[in-house]
Automatic annotation (TrEMBL):
Record-given protein name: Endoglucanase
GO biological process: cellulose catabolic process
Class of enzymatic activity (EC top level): hydrolase
Transmembrane feature ranges: none
Keyword vocabulary terms for this entry: Carbohydrate metabolism, Cellulose degradation, Glycosidase, Hydrolase, Polysaccharide degradation, Signal
Active site: H411, D462, E471
Gene3D superfamilies per the UniProt record, alphabetical: 1.50.10.10
Catalyzed reactions per annotation: Endohydrolysis of (1->4)-beta-D-glucosidic linkages in cellulose, lichenin and cereal beta-D-glucans
Family stated for the protein in its record: Belongs to the glycosyl hydrolase 9 (cellulase E) family.
InterPro entries assigned: 6-hairpin_glycosidase_sf, 6hp_glycosidase-like_sf, Glyco_hydro_9, Glyco_hydro_9_Asp/Glu_AS, Glyco_hydro_9_His_AS
Signal peptide annotation: 1-22
EC number: 3.2.1.4
Source species of the chain: Tagetes erecta (African marigold)
PROSITE patterns: GH9_2 (PS00592), GH9_3 (PS00698)
């Protein structure tokens, strides 16, 4: 629909412009947050740790993953405070780490190598999971119910390391297409520095996408008892198919993927306005990614994605005619009670990425009859990132190790149980619960870990037992890496 500009106004926040916005944080603070947000991933590593491992309270773990199926699935990341390797959130984490580097890697400076190492730790694993057995994708290692009954550091794990896979007979289009997106996005990052590896990533992405597209179904239906309720695919798999195709198109410039998006977009959710972006629901992220093609290259077929991206972005801006987002009294975007900061970091990343696309092309977001500038989007994202780092009613940083006050009793096995360096003897499944129930601070400071965050009234109890608030996760940190990089360069 053609917008009449006779009634268009320019929407300006009741704050100072970004360039002069008062803040207690400097670019050095954001650089510190960037360093720590990347360091966090070393504490989540599974497998044989490298000689340059900086997080010293961790040691080798899960060195026989995959052996029960005669495949090598050693490596990758534990998703959060447990010891399971869940494929869907790990793949999304990988995609968001890659996207952070693609958009804001120029601001990472000395941290770029560490960011790429964090990305490669998971992309290496995903390649193994996708190529170990033809026609299959391994999507999980670890039996979650027995794992969750234990409070055990990963180095001592004695719970079953069952492996789970999807195939033509047991489809999992959601996890397969997200894995394809992750590998394609990672291939862009390594194009210049390691072209042969980049090519391998992209080729694997295409093969995994074929599996996702040809044999459609949700992995929740195929292996539901071990992925639900932990990482059920609540949104279905259509959003991942569009997301995966968009990333492969961006990485390959293969016109067949553009044709796929054009032909299938309407069935896969391109017409839906969705106001969430997470490991489960990719619709808002896909639209921002595809909107770039219209904003920068004026590919008319993708104009639809600009309109829907505007709708999503406008939903986040308080006072905008399209505002839908809920905020705490202290100003934090509040989506839901369980691990709310994951939605804060993903939405902040999309605000900054869209601001970049718009700003470099003189564009604006259209919120009904109101135009929103890229600077407004940056201001809104900055409020959210600053809140996480300590500009909040609790005066607490929700990143462990950042600032003077931060969570010390996080819901994380490896952090809360004495390390093997300090306590070499085995600590059993049940024996670990004494540390879970302890009121003491965790013995190992998991630097860079961003926890689930405060409740809807800005309260945070620093309670290890309240996992919704106190558990960190890789998919909370991954988009934050890009946001921290942006502000470290401004």
């Amino acid at each position: 629909m053609v917008q009449s500009y006779l009634y268009t106004t320019l929407f300006i926040l009741v704050t100072l412009p970004f360039s002069s916005l008062a803040s207690s944080f400097t670019s050095q603070h954001y650089s510190d947050a960037l360093t720590k947000s990347i360091l966090f991933f070393e504490g989540q590593r599974s497998g044989k740790l490298p000689n340059n491992q900086r997080v010293k309270w961790r040691a080798d773990s899960a060195l026989h993953d995959g052996s029960s199926a005669n495949v090598n699935l050693v490596g990758g990341y534990y998703d959060a405070g447990d010891n399971v390797k869940f494929g869907l959130p790990m793949a999304f984490t990988t995609t968001m780490l890659a996207w952070s580097i693609i958009e804001f890697g120029d601001n990472m400076k000395s941290e770029l190598a560490n960011a790429k190492a964090a990305l490669r730790w998971s992309s290496d694993y995903l390649v193994k999971a996708a190529t170990a057995t033809p026609g299959t994708l391994y999507v999980q290692v670890g039996e979650p119910n027995s794992d969750h009954r234990c409070w055990e550091r990963p180095e001592d794990m004695d719970t079953p390391r069952n492996v789970y896979k999807i195939s033509a007979q047991n489809p999992g289009s959601d996890v397969a297409a997200e894995t394809a997106a992750a590998l394609a996005a990672a291939s862009i990052v390594f194009q210049g520095s390691d072209p042969s590896y980049s090519h391998k990533l992209l080729q694997t992405a295409m093969n995994v996408f074929d599996l996702a597209n040809k044999y459609r179904g949700s992995y929740s239906d195929s292996i539901g008892s071990v992925v639900c309720p932990f990482y059920c695919s609540y949104s279905g798999y259509n959003d991942e198919l569009l997301w995966g195709a968009a990333w492969i198109h961006k990485a390959s410039q293969d016109p067949s993927y553009m044709s796929y998006i054009q032909s299938n977009g309407h069935m896969l959710g391109s017409d839906d306005d969705d106001f969430s972006f997470s490991w489960d629901d990719k619709r808002a992220g896909t639209k921002v990614l595809l909107a770039q093609a219209f904003i920068e290259n004026k590919i008319d077929q993708f104009q639809l994605y600009k309109q829907h991206s505007d709708n999503y972005i406008c939903s986040l801006i308080p006072g905008s005619p399209n505002s839908q987002a809920r905020y705490t009294p202290g100003g934090l975007f509040y989506k839901q009670g369980e691990s709310n900061l994951q939605y804060v970091t993903t939405s902040s990343f999309l605000l900054l990425t869209y601001a970049k696309y718009l700003g470099s092309n003189g564009g604006q977001a259209s919120c009904g009859t109101t135009m929103v500038t890229s600077e407004t989007l940056i201001v809104q994202a900055k409020k959210q990132i600053d809140y996480i780092l300590g500009d909040n009613p609790m005066k607490m940083s929700y990143m462990v190790g950042f600032g003077d006050r931060y969570p010390t009793r996080i819901h994380h096995r490896g952090s809360s149980v004495p390390s093997v360096r300090d306590h070499p003897d085995h600590i059993s499944c049940d024996a670990g619960h004494q540390y879970y129930n302890s009121g003491s601070a965790n013995p190992n400071t998991h630097v860079g870990a961003i926890v689930g965050g405060p409740d809807s009234n800005d309260n945070y109890g620093d309670d290890r037992g309240n996992y919704s608030e106190s558990e960190p996760a890789t998919y909370i940190n991954a988009p934050f890496v890009g946001a921290a990089a942006f502000f470290s360069g401004h």
